[in-house]
Design goal:
Distance between the termini: 43 Å
Number of helices: 13
CATH topology of the largest domain: Aminopeptidase
Oligomer: single chain
CATH class of the largest domain: Alpha Beta
CATH superfamily of the largest domain: Zn peptidases
Number of domains: 3
Strand content: 25-35%
Organism: Brevibacterium koreense
Protein name: M20/M25/M40 family metallo-hydrolase
GO molecular function, one term: metalloexopeptidase activity
Number of strands: 26
Largest sheet: 14 strands, mixed
InterPro entries: M28_fam (IPR045175), PA_dom_sf (IPR046450), PA_domain (IPR003137), Peptidase_M28 (IPR007484)
Structural class: alpha/beta
Keywords: Membrane, Signal, Transmembrane, Transmembrane helix
Helix content: 10-25%
């Protein structure tokens, strides 16, 4: 049974300490990012990985390319693992599991001697031997020729005695395909043809899935709207007493394969606050799957490498997933989510999915979690926070003047298991078997009336047919989303005033031949040495000054809390011209002031002599010991009295950030 827990797109952590330094150089160099970035990821970087994945797939063309249970898939898993491990920034895990698979042999259906273009349904049973001279019947629940309702075959009572031993034609709609096959089986039908009800794509094949095997179920195939509607017309026009006759053969075999998801999580970041990104790595056996979904898999690899190269560590843990067995029913991602216990599931705060980003007749699509472009289908849950995730992409595209459209938030890809468990989700999609509209052609170019990916699930889904233009649009957008969820932005340092006079071309004085003065006497000042817990979480805190450091050299302060509640942390600062390096320590969370009570050992190491050490104590609110309630006087300042307290990235634990909702803008 799937766990269902409500989670918010919020970043939360326990109380922490903040170090306040007073050096402009510290603010510029160590405070973390002040704006989000695409980390320099380009379509070329993604194409490099896609080429490797494509080469692996095509080298196993005789063995099913990169499909479930093939050597090509296992080799692709190894490539992903090696790429991630080479960065040194991730803990990489291969998650093994068993999955049932289905292979088809001969599939042939003809009615009145005329062959139908059919697609076998996933999880269907087969025929032990060819079925011949079957009568052809319809459900009798209602007339469905106007597609308004009826002939849906959702219950056995929707059929009459004509279904016994017959091939029944059933329209798509109202209930699941598996329910239709079960109802027809219960009514005694020998075989089932499901036909599509999408009049906007009348020749589109129906790739139906029964969801699971129907015990002793009637063999089931799908056909397009045109095929089904033509057959419906023939059945209704048949002369009474002279029914149409059909032949039906469906050969299938069920197998069990071991396969793997690949999971990688940053070593850095808050592991109770996980932001997750995923793409399926498997493909179909009919082609190399360069776009579906080598493209999404390659984009995650490029983004992971770029994240590993960032100058500061992520605030929030980023977890990447490469899913197995998506093509046989979203099996890998579903297995992963269901393998998490409730505590682990609650740590996953968001999920972003990337399934095809290089379609040759592409659109720039976001999963429309707010329903502003495409209504949310009935029965689909949209966890709170999903609209804010989509807005990460739409806002990014707005800054690039890039048109974009919302696409179905229907659960047709690997985000399904996440939304079923209350995890906010979004993602990007360049299109699959949908048809390009005139409006989409105006925004993105391409050919009206053609599928968004004309090579979808075909042998022609090769790297040569991947749109480079589409990759160039999607690749930096994905990397930008990774950076956005990995980092909490810091305030930019205040600008300094320009010099009052332009610099001279020559030195103002001739350099002396003697060295400058050595650093002054070494000492460590801690003010105050005892402080009330209420004052410790105030703006003043404790000020630390190390004298006798070499000017312009970097000094490192290490604070070792002795109360067992707070972890050891460090801060760096640059010694000023007077040989003094200044630091500040204070508590961040007033509501947890009691957490900070205890003794803190302080050590400052800088050029110019041995390390300096001292200590201070934070007293409980009801203490009457020395210094209780004494804020320690005015804080020391450097030259600019307006320079604000700078928060060190090394010790800052963000206490709560909720992504802001805003009006969504679309560009046409």
């Amino acid at each position: 049974m799937k766990l269902r827990t409500k989670t918010w797109l919020a970043i939360t952590a326990a109380a922490g300490l903040a170090l306040g330094g007073f050096s402009p150089a510290l603010a510029a160099g160590n405070a973390g990012p002040t704006e989000h970035t695409d980390m320099g990821v380009t379509g070329d970087a993604v194409m490099d990985h896609l080429q490797k994945i494509s080469d692996i797939s095509t080298s196993h063309s005789e063995e099913g390319f990169r499909a479930l249970g093939t050597p090509g898939y296992e080799e692709s898993v190894e490539y992903v693992e090696q790429t991630l491990e080479a960065t040194g920034a991730f803990d990489v895990e291969r998650q093994a599991f068993e999955v049932g698979d289905q292979a088809f042999g001969e599939v042939a259906v003809s009615v009145d001697g005329e062959k139908l273009q059919v697609t076998p349904a996933s999880f269907t049973e087969g025929t032990e031997e060819p079925l011949t001279d079957l009568s052809v019947a319809l459900p009798v629940d209602d007339d469905y020729s106007d597609l308004a309702g009826g002939q849906l075959g959702c219950e056995a009572s929707d059929f009459d005695d004509s279904a016994e031993g017959a091939l029944v034609l059933v329209a798509r709609g109202s209930c699941a395909f598996g329910e239709k096959t079960q109802a027809a089986t219960d009514a005694g039908a020998a075989a089932v043809v499901l036909y599509n009800n999408d009049t906007s794509a009348p020749d589109e094949a129906l790739n139906a899935t029964l969801g699971e095997r129907v015990e002793n179920g009637a063999p089931t195939v799908g056909v397009s709207y045109n095929e089904g509607n033509d057959l419906l017309t023939k059945i209704e026009g048949a002369v009474e007493g002279e029914p149409l006759l059909a032949d039906f053969t469906l050969e299938t075999e069920y197998t069990t394969s071991t396969t793997w998801n690949v999971i990688a999580e940053t070593k850095a970041g808050d592991h109770d606050n996980v932001q997750m990104f995923g793409a399926h790595l498997d493909g179909v056996a009919d082609g190399p799957g360069a776009n579906d979904n080598g493209s999404g898999s390659a984009a995650l690899l490029a983004s992971a490498e770029a994240l590993a190269e960032q100058p500061t560590e992520a605030d929030n843990a980023i977890r990447f997933g490469w899913w197995a067995a998506e093509e046989v029913g979203l099996v890998g991602s579903t297995h992963y989510v269901e393998s998490l216990n409730e505590a682990e599931l609650s740590k996953v705060k968001s999920y972003m999915n990337f399934d095809m980003i290089g379609s040759d007749n592409y659109i720039v699509g976001t999963l429309d979690s707010d329903g502003s472009d495409v209504p949310i289908p009935d029965g689909v849950s949209v966890p709170e926070g999903s609209a804010e995730l989509e807005k990460v992409f739409t806002d990014y595209f707005d800054t690039k003047d890039q048109p974009n459209v919302g696409t179905d938030f229907s659960g047709r890809s690997d985000y399904q298991a996440f939304i079923d468990n209350g995890i906010p989700s979004s993602g990007l999609f360049s299109g699959a078997d949908g048809t390009k509209t005139p409006e989409e052609a105006d925004m993105f170019g391409g050919t009206v009336g053609d599928k968004h990916d004309t090579n979808y699930h075909q042998p022609t889904d090769t790297i040569e047919n991947v749109s480079r233009e589409s990759l160039d649009i999607f690749s930096p957008a994905i990397a930008y989303a990774v950076h956005t969820l990995a980092y909490d932005l810091r305030d930019a340092p205040a600008p300094t005033d320009p010099p009052s006079t332009p610099p001279t071309d020559s030195p103002t004085e001739t350099p002396t031949e003697t060295p400058t003065d050595a650093p002054g006497e070494r000492s460590l000042s801690i003010d105050p040495t005892t402080i009330d817990q209420a004052d410790f979480v105030g703006e003043r805190g404790v000020q630390v000054a190390a004298a006798g450091c070499t000017p312009d050299a970097t000094a490192t302060m290490t604070v070792e809390p002795q109360n067992g509640a707070i972890e050891t942390f460090e801060q760096t600062a640059t010694a000023d011209a007077d040989s003094v390096a200044k630091f500040g320590v204070r508590g961040l969370d007033e509501s947890k002031a009691a957490t900070y009570v205890g003794t803190y050992e302080v050590t400052v190491d800088c050029e110019g002599g041995d390390p300096l050490s001292g200590s201070f104590e934070v007293l409980a609110a009801d203490s009457d010991g020395p210094g209780a309630g004494d804020g320690g006087g005015e804080l020391p300042r450097t030259g600019n009295e307006a320079l604000p307290l700078v928060i060190s990235a090394g010790a800052l634990i963000v206490l709560g950030v909720i992504m802001t909702m805003g009006a969504r803008r679309r560009k046409a």
